[in-house]
Amino acid sequence: MKEFELIRHYFTEQIVKRKDVHLGIGDDCALVTPPERQHIAVTTDTLVAGVHFPLTTSARAIGHKSIAVNLSDLAAMGAEPSWISLAITLPEIDEQWIDEFCVGVFELCEFYNVQLIGGDTTQGPLSISVTAQGFVPFDKHISRSGAKAGDWLYVTGEIGGAALALQHIQGKVVVEPKYQDEVIKRLDFPQARILAGQALREYATSAIDLSDGLVADLEHICKASSVGANIVLDNLPIPLALTETIGAEKAYDMALKGGDDYELLFSVAEENRVGMETVLANSGNKITCIGQLNGSDNITTTLNSKPVVLNVKGFQHFSENSVE
Predict the structure, then answer these.
(1) Phi, psi at residue 129, to the nearest 5°?
(2) Which residues touch 117 (CB under 8 Å, ≥6 apart)?
(3) Is 31 strand, coil or helix?
(4) What are the residue boundaries of the structural domains of the chain, listed by start?
């Protein structure tokens, strides 16, 4: 099977066919029609084998994750996802692998009504690049730069489980069998918090998705908004698997610096806390208040109301900790 046969067989036919896609796969460009008075939010992420996922990761999980990490960026902006483009580099054409990869891609696209409208296929070391686009009403997007001192800091879901799974796969820790499926699912099948992001358009002053670790991503908000923050370690929503595997102290450390959670970290002004908590609770989203922003220029942590030394860094490419 050659390149164009591969495209026709695996990517041209799909369940989602949006009315705003005038021309999709099969031409030099796709043609789409955005709705009136909506910004188009655009994001691109690349996943490289051995860097963004272990080489043993299943094809279905790679397909799911390649879409989920992009939809998570849209969620952080409060956007509704619409279209994706997919560029995939394959060492060889393994039809069973591609079948499973497409299952992971298209089950998520179908769930969020997202249409694949184009892309590229090439031969080489395994990597996947996805560009995702979505809509957000004029002046309703959430950015990293709107936070104020005094705002409360929240996170969706739980954090640290994906990092624990990676440590387990790399043989650095041993997770009990009863927790293994749970944490590996957190790593391989992250959930984009699309509904939470859209609900937060009316309440959040800033937001970011957690890809590189809580502290590293919080630093982006603090820098963009010119604020500092204090994280209350006692309040971190840490999975039981994490504390039972490595103990409470190391669990705090992993929750602060571990990446791949793809939860939303966001800030809310005092006057909007009750309304936000009510709306997100009614939509089935678990949220936890983990601290507060302040007028300093740094990030601190407290435990049992006492300050503790913060000595963690998140993931960065081209740094000494950039090998996953």
Answers:
(1) -120, 130
(2) 21, 24, 25, 30, 32, 83, 84, 85
(3) strand
(4) 3-137, 152-308
Q: Please answer whether residues 157 and 120 qualify as being in contact, where contact means their C-beta atoms are separated by less than 8 angstroms.
A: no
Does residue 316 surpass a pLDDT of 60?
A: no
- The residue behind tokens 């069998």 is 177
Q: Within a 10 A sphere around the Cβ of 309, how many other Cβ atoms? A: 7
Helix (H) or strand (E) holding 181: helix 177-188
Topology annotation, domain 152-308? Phosphoribosyl-aminoimidazole Synthetase; Chain A, domain 2 (3.90.650)
* DSSP output for 190-201: ----HHHHHHHT
- Tell me the per-residue pLDDT of 244-290, one tens digit each, with 9 for 90 and over: 999 998 999 999 999 999 999 999 999 999 999 999 998 889 999 99
Give me the amino acid identity at 130.
V
127-144 pLDDT, tens digit per residue, is 999 999 999 999 899 999
Class (C level, CATH) for 3-137: alpha beta
- How many whole angstroms from its chain centre is CA 174? 25
199 and 277 in contact (C-beta within 8 Å)? no
In the block, tokens 């039809």 appear at 95
Q: How far apart are CA 252 and CA 324, in angstroms?
A: 19
* Entry pTM: 0.91
Enumerate residues 6+ apart whose C-beta is below 8 A from 286: 156, 157, 158, 237
Pick 317 or 312 by higher pLDDT.
312
CA distance 286 to 15: 31
For residue 226, the Cα-to-chain-centroid distance in whole angstroms is 24
Question: What is the torsion angle, in degrees rounded to the nearest 10, for the CA atoms of residue 134, residue 136, residue 138 and residue 143?
Answer: -100
Write out the two tokens for 11: 């990517």
Q: Can you tell me the distance from the alpha carbon of 93 to that of 97, in angstroms, rounded to the nearest whole number?
A: 8
